[in-house]
Queue: 3 jobs
Job 1
Amino acid sequence: MSNRRFSALDKALAHTTQKAPDYPSRITGLYGADVFGDRVMRDYLPEDVFKAVAGHKNKAEPIDRKIADQVASAMKSWALSKGATHYCHWFMPLNGATAEKHDAFFTPALDNQSMEMFGGAQLVLQEPDASSLPSGGLRNTFEARGYTAWDPSSPAFIVDNTLCIPTIFIAYTGESLDFKMPLLKSISVLDKVAVEVCQMFDKSIEQVFPTLGWEQEYFLVDEALFHARPDLVMTGRTLLGHIPAKGQQMEDHYFGAIPSRVSSFMKAFELEAWKLGIPVKTRHNEVAPNQYELAPVYEEANIAVDHNQLVMGIMDRVARKHRFRVLFHEKPFAGVNGSGKHNNYSLATNTGKNLLSPGHTPKTNLLFLTFFVNIIKAVHEHAELLRAVIASAGNDHRLGANEAPPAIVSIFIGSQLTGILDDLEKMVKEKKMSPDEKTELKLNIGKIPRLIIDNTDRNRTSPLAFTGNKFEFRAVGSSANCGPSLIVLNTILADSLKIFKKQVDKAMDQGVDKDEAIFRTLRRFIMESRNILFEGNGYGEEWVREAEKRGLSNISNTPDALAAYISDKTKSLFVETGVFSERELVARWEIRHENYAKVIQIESRSLADLAGNHIIPTAIRYQNILVENVRGLKEILPPEQFKRQSELQVYVIGKISDHISSIRQYVKEMIEKRKEANALETPEHRSAFYCREVLPYFDKIRYHVDKLEVLIDDELWTLPKYRELLFVK
Ligand code: ADP
Ligand code: MG
């Protein structure tokens, strides 16, 4: 009898290292070669058209049609010269993937001739029949029209002979159905108020935009082994599997030498990324076996989000060529670390300044402090929304699991900056400061840059850490689109800056001088948001108790976390800033519940299938062998000897029997619960029920399956084991 696991292992071990691509002698020659970026546009477009496109960055409104016609014509010539045959609108619907629908440039004409067609109309607006993408009730299927509209702030690119045009995706009513449109809106809302605040310090600042540097963690699994694990194929994670004798405890994988098969894969996808102008820079082994990370140089946030989505797609494609599968799931394997996507976030200006980087004068440092404190205040005010935005079935396994930030949102800023905030709080009073006091305070503020230099962040347990010149949001899941977290960060910061500006203006109206008005407002903000600052160990039990005392919420699962998405506070935040209408917000909330319920449903079905069709039959087969063996021994062994061996053997047979019965019982109950869940009317009730009533069976079933795995003859076990999935490279 053939065993699927062994034939998969044979195949996996036979997979050899694919040849790594030849790098050109200089990457700069190839960097951005497949992108219709500024360099190409300058070549292909008249000066005024180029300027119009360049000036239309991060706007959620359409560009002038005449401009679009000229850009389309240039894009077409460029794309055809690069061998492109098709074009598509590339967008990010709410299912979390990217979507594209290809059309050929080639258009037949009546007289048996044909021509390559692509004009402003095709560039600017398309109507894909995308009625099967999630809309949370924003589109009725009988009026399913959805439009994709060109986003001139993100450059078009060529993948696989197709010109891809980044677009937003909206319903026919104008409501957004994607992650890009609200991101652009949030960027522009933030720009407006941040510029107003900056101008209190520096009149030359006319534009502020968020920057994002993501760090992407992932696992690689050999393709043959992947296919022999239906749970990986169906759900992206293992639902079963005994922890191997050796996991990550030796800490020998982190930053270790990259295996040649893996390095060859990395080189191949990096080359693809560079051609698309994605500034991929860093690669290394992560903590868990077969876990890796890559990080690019940071970019303007809208483009960085596009690039992260693109890279995930490229990695998936290239991995297949190298006979790997990439797992972006947040927790593919129990017992070793899961994967996150750290979002490094900062703000840049048209003057080339990083607003979260302290400068050389007290004035620039006060500007720094203003943004620094406003972010703290914003996070304090909307911590639950931040928790909600990163919530997903996958990320629930990570957050608070002592390997990733806890589910409690807090900020780490380091002892030096804590000291500065303490000083500010102590020294400033709600009364006029003496000139001496002011000088002392300014002197203190002047010292910031020197203080921060050695204050690099070593606290890996914090969900949000200040790391010298940026905040690092570490709680984002590895499979997530970066868009939603950025939308929240931009919007809550914009909201906080608006309140800040109002309070400063009010004090100034009452005759307080500008610096002092700023000091006083910052002091108030610091006092109001102290609670969110935490410098200790985020993994510790004490923090859970301390956070509770402070009144910080600690929400362990997605359905509960999502409540903050549609709280009155969140609604007024988004509606007032114009980033989401109430309908759009509720639609997103509904889609997230729906998605959660579906993920647990699929996992539960896969688990039941594995238990019933793989585990139990294997267990019975082995049990029968043992039973036969006992019968045979009885015939030939002397009674004393028979007694000794058979007693233990019968004990094992009984153990197997207990495990089989428990599995059968739990699977039966789980299926009953699933039926109840599916009968519920609304997505939020379904997701809550799946979470509370169905999910708990996973661990119960797994416990018995994993026990069987160690009892049963290795030769009979059909599913690749952890030691194979994690250590075959
Ligand atoms: P590490 O966190 O591993 O010590 P760095 O601090 O150098 O490494 O950078 C980590 C990530 O932060 C990189 O992806 C980088 O692009 C990003 N980053 C650096 N500066 C900024 C910035 N101003 N805005 C956004 N991201 C940034
Ligand atoms: Mg980092």
Note: The chain has a mean pLDDT of 92.
Job 2
Amino acid sequence: MARRMNQSGFDMSIVERITTPFYYYDMDLLQATLDQINHLTAGLPCCVHYALKANSNAHIISKISSSGLGCDLVSGGEIKAALEAGFLPQQMTFSGVGKTDWEIELGLNHEIGCFNVESVPELDIINQLAGTMGKTARVALRVNPDIDAHTHKFITTGTANDKFGISIESLPLVVKHARHLSNIHLRGLHFHIGSQITSMQPYVDLCKVINNLLDHFHQSGIDFEMINVGGGLGIDYLHPDTNAIPDFKTYFKTFGEHLKLRPNQMLHFELGRSIVGQCGTLIARVVFVKETCGKKFVILDAGMTDLIRPALYGAYHEIQNLSSSGGPTETYDIVGPVCESTDVFARARQLPVTSRGDIIAIRSAGAYGESMASRYNMRPLPGCIFSSET
Ligand code: LLP
């Protein structure tokens, strides 16, 4: 089918081939993002893992695995998806506060690179299951560094209030305990302070905490082989085109400058949003434009079941009318069809005058978009299409 590019370079013929709403993925941008990460980390003693929870679309994760990244997983389902996508088990980390026995067994069976362990009961169960299976579990202890990442409270993970990790106070005893367990190989420490972090300061603070811990353990004769600093690097939701690739250079440099790694210590990252966030756009169609109580509503065929971030976190996403070629604008609330009052993508947003049938793009939706979709109201899951197929 002939391409019909609109003003922002989007091929409008796509919407005639696939039912809205659907995710459109810019695979060139994803590749450029991966190339940038590989370029910046080449030759350094580090390993970047892609956090599959951000987007576990089979096509997306195959592309990421073929670029050589490792992966960070939080469920047995993600382990299976990552194996199918070709990620190497030794480059897999398995995080999460509530790993069930079958998930641990799956990880042990495939001899994954590292279980990021969040508690003593979890450590003991992994040790026990590994013993029964005649395996040794490679483990990092997840530490809660009590650092406020100054991000949305729903996606802050590293403060004393959060359910994640082992407190710094109890860490020495847990390390001692782990080193005595016969089926555990303690590789290092793991941290993750939150998501959509846009200032480097929380990472500088994290480096200080880690340096102190490394000194402390060194004095007791313990040097870990790896440190995992988690993920969390934010993306620019306001300017998806001008800042399509996040500032990985400053991010990696921050750790290079502030973290005092010991010789032969490997640094691990678990990045999700910063890798896939900007390559995805949710494309929807306007079902109705309605006016009530002096307010104008654009009602889309996409809703919170397709992209829950605005409803759940009040998250901002750029919204564009791809059918419009400019002209006068109007103020609209842009909403979905789901029977929930939080099913709102944006309030009081300026859009070109919009009509039924117009095609709307909700930008920066590649991370925690499709992967958080649900079938609430018995709605079908959104479809997807890739720029490489168009
Ligand atoms: N590592 C661990 C242990 C994590 O819990 C997470 C994210 C990541 C890595 C990846 O973080 P990222 O680089 O993507 O920020 N649904 C929320 C975000 C939840 C993040 C959960 N953990 C959102 O839509 O903003």
Note: The chain has a mean pLDDT of 95.
Job 3
Amino acid sequence: MAILKIVKKSTDEEFLRKKSRPVEQITERTKTLLDDMVETMRHANGCGLAAVQVGILRRIVVIETEEGLFELINPRIIAKSGEQESEEGCLSVPGEWGITRRPMNVTARALNRDGEEIEIVASGLLAKAICHELDHLDGILYTDKVIKK
Ligand code: ZN
């Protein structure tokens, strides 16, 4: 496993704004990338990381909360409801936080590393993390959504 370099908004915003492409086939390289992303996220004390943040434009994210570790390939949100306002930060924007408005509840579907379709029913922090990480795949940063600093 390896700790990867995290792309920062301050120096590489143009890259972070690119749209990630779907994973067509899950290979050993995909699994190594997932392992490295988890290690990188934990090393940086983050609760989520998208592949674009380590320089790879593929629709892959990892999220870790008290509810566990989630490795999501080609994730999509299929339902959302409610609203929460809370503090948010990003490993690509170190040292900054802002209040955002996100759905309180989110249902997401994705493939796991074995290529099986999984569904996550999330609320609170996990719902926020899913929204944040999926936004990265479309070049959207939480700083676009800050309602107060
Ligand atoms: Zn982020």
Note: The chain has a mean pLDDT of 97.
